[in-house]
Design brief:
Length: about 475
C-alpha cells in the first residue's frame, strides 16, 4: 500500500508598518520614489550615525500583538543580527531575538467548516533591508536604500498548518486584522506583506517532523498555494527515492512553477546575535498596554455580528462587506446617509464586485465617495432614474467618482413620468406594430415584451418599464 504523507507548515510573515517615517530615522517610508531619495546617514549605515526608535512602531506592534491574543513582553529590547549582503548597509540588521515584543498568541481560522487555532510563537520588530536591482543588460547590480529602515513586524507561527487552504485562511485572517488596525495596507504585490513558508513532510502518524525547507519570493496568495503544492511533491519524491531532504532556503519561480535552492539555511548562531548597544530596552507599563487596548478598533469578527443584527443582512453578504475594512467603511457611511443598508449592500456586492474583477482591482482600490453611492440609491428609490440608467451612472461613479444627481441632470437621464408623453409614444408603438398587438390579443403574453422594448427604445431608456407594462395592458 502506498505511504500516506502529511504536510507540516509554519509561516514567517513580514508586515511593513504604516508609519510615515522609518523605524530609526525620520526618512519617509513612502512606496516608490526615485532610488536612494528617502535616505539619510542612519538608514544608509554611515559610521557614527545613531538610531532613535519610532514610538509609533512599538504601538502598532503592540496593537497587532493584542489583536492576535499574544502576551506583550513588558521589558523588550533590540538585538543585532549580523550578516553581509549588499542591500544591508550596516552589515547587520537591528531585530529582536531574545526578548521580542509579543509571544504565545493565536488566531482562529475556519477551513471547510472546521475551526482551528494557529498558534503564534512570537512577533518581533525589525528594520527592512534595501533592495537589489540586477541589470541583465549591463551585467551589474544596483542597490536602492529607500526601503532600508522601513519598520517591519515579523510574525512567526508554530508549525500548525497542514494544507495550502489552511495557510491562505491564516494569511487572510492576519491581513484582515492588521488592515482593521490601520497598522499596514498589507499589499502583497507592493511587498508590504510577505510570507516565507517553512514546509516539511512526514508519514501520517509519525511523531517526528521531517526536514524543513524555507521558501521565499511569494508575492500573491495564488503563488503561495502553488509553491506549497510544488514543494510538498518535491519532498515526497525525494523521500520515495530514498534521498535526503536538505535543510535550505529555496526561491520560488512562479512563472516556471518550480523552486531552486538559494542557500543552505542558517541557524541563529550563524548570525552572531548580540544585544543592540545603541538602543535602550523598551519598558512597557500596564498603563501603556491599557491605552493601546482602549484604542483598538472594532475588528472584523465583532463587525460581522453587528451587521447581522443592526442591518439585518445575510451572513454571506456581511462576510464579503467586512472582508475589507475599506469596503465596510464605505458601506457604513453610505447606509447612514441614505438609511437603506440593504440597497447599499446590493450595489457593493453585485456591481462593485463585478467592476473590481473586470478591472483586476482589490476592494482597497475603491475610490468613490460613500456620499455618491448613497445619492444613487436615493435617486433609484425615488424612481427618478430606472435600474438600467442607475447601472450606467454607477459605472461612472466607480470610474470617476462623479456626483450622480448632477450627472443625471446634465445628461437628461431622468425617468419620464409624464403620462401624456407616455401615452403619445404608446399610441405610435401600437400603430407601428400590428402583428405584435394581434399576437398579444390572441393570447400570446410574450408579445407584450416586444412592445415594452420598442417603447423603451423610443424613449431612450428614460421610462419606467413597470409603468409602460401597466399602461400598455390598459390600452390593449
Amino acid at each position: 500500500m502506498a505511504k500516506q504523507y502529511e504536510t507540516v507548515i509554519g509561516l514567517e510573515v513580514h508586515v511593513e508598518l504604516a508609519t510615515k517615517t522609518k523605524i530609526f530615522c525620520s526618512c519617509s517610508t513612502q512606496f516608490g520614489g526615485a532610488p536612494n531619495t528617502h535616505t539619510c546617514p542612519v538608514c544608509t549605515g554611515m559610521p557614527g550615525s545613531l538610531p532613535v526608535l519610532n514610538k509609533q512602531v512599538v504601538e502598532y506592534a503592540m496593537a497587532i500583538g493584542l489583536a492576535t491574543n499574544c502576551d506583550i513582553t513588558q521589558v523588550c529590547k533590540f538585538d543585532r543580527k549580523n550578516y553581509f549582503y549588499p542591500d544591508n548597509p550596516q552589515n547587520y540588521q537591528i531585530s529582536q531575538l531574545y526578548l521580542p515584543i509579543a509571544r504565545n498568541g493565536y488566531v482562529e481560522i475556519e477551513v471547510a467548516g472546521q475551526k482551528k487555532k494557529v498558534r503564534i510563537h512570537e512577533m518581533h520588530m525589525e528594520e527592512d533591508a534595501g533592495k537589489l536591482i540586477h541589470d541583465e543588460w549591463d551585467d551589474t547590480s544596483l542597490v536602492d536604500y529607500n526601503r532600508s529602515g522601513v519598520p517591519l513586524v515579523e510574525i512567526v507561527s508554530e508549525p500548525d498548518m497542514r494544507s495550502a487552504d489552511e495557510v491562505i485562511a491564516y494569511l487572510e485572517k492576519l491581513r484582515t486584522i492588521v488592515q482593521y488596525l490601520g497598522a499596514s495596507d498589507c499589499k502583497l504585490q507592493e511587498g508590504s506583506m510577505r510570507a516565507d513558508v517553512n514546509l516539511s513532510v512526514r508519514e501520517v502518524g509519525a511523531a517526528e517532523f521531517g526536514t524543513r525547507t524555507e521558501m521565499k519570493n511569494l508575492n500573491s496568495f495564488k503563488a503561495i498555494a502553488r509553491a506549497i503544492e510544488g514543494e510538498r511533491e518535491r519532498q515526497i519524491e525525494l523521500i520515495e527515492e530514498g534521498k535526503q531532504v536538505v535543510q535550505e532556503t529555496r526561491r520560488w519561480d512562479d512563472n516556471k512553477e518550480s523552486s531552486h535552492a538559494m542557500r543552505s539555511k542558517e541557524d541563529a548562531q550563524d548570525y552572531r546575535y548580540f544585544p543592540e548597544p545603541d538602543l535602550v530596552p523598551i519598558i512597557i507599563s500596564d498603563e501603556w498596554i491599557q491605552k493601546v487596548k482602549d484604542r483598538q478598533p472594532e475588528l472584523r469578527s465583532e463587525k460581522l455580528e453587528r451587521y447581522k443584527k443592526e442591518y439585518d443582512i445575510p451572513q454571506y453578504d456581511a462576510e464579503i462587506l467586512t472582508n475589507s475594512k475599506h469596503m465596510a467603511d464605505i458601506f457604513e457611511e453610505a447606509a447612514a446617509i441614505c438609511g437603506k443598508p440593504k440597497k447599499v449592500s446590493n450595489w457593493l456586492m453585485v456591481e462593485t464586485m463585478r467592476l473590481l474583477k473586470e478591472n483586476g482591482m482589490e476592494p482597497e482600490d475603491i475610490d468613490f465617495a460613500p456620499e455618491n453611492l448613497a445619492a444613487l440609491v436615493e435617486l433609484t428609490e425615488a424612481g427618478t432614474i430606472n435600474s438600467s440608467v442607475a447601472k450606467e451612472v454607477f459605472e461612472k461613479i466607480f470610474a470617476e467618482d462623479i456626483d450622480p444627481k448632477a450627472y443625471v441632470e446634465e445628461h437628461g437621464l431622468k425617468t419620464v413620468n409624464d403620462d401624456g408623453a407616455l401615452e403619445e409614444v404608446l399610441k405610435k408603438v401600437i400603430a407601428d406594430n400590428p402583428q405584435a398587438v394581434a399576437d398579444y390579443q390572441g393570447g400570446k403574453k410574450k408579445a407584450l415584451g416586444a412592445l415594452v422594448g420598442q417603447t423603451m427604445k423610443t424613449m431612450k431608456g428614460k421610462a419606467d418599464p413597470v409603468a409602460i407594462n401597466k399602461k400598455l395592458q390598459e390600452m390593449l
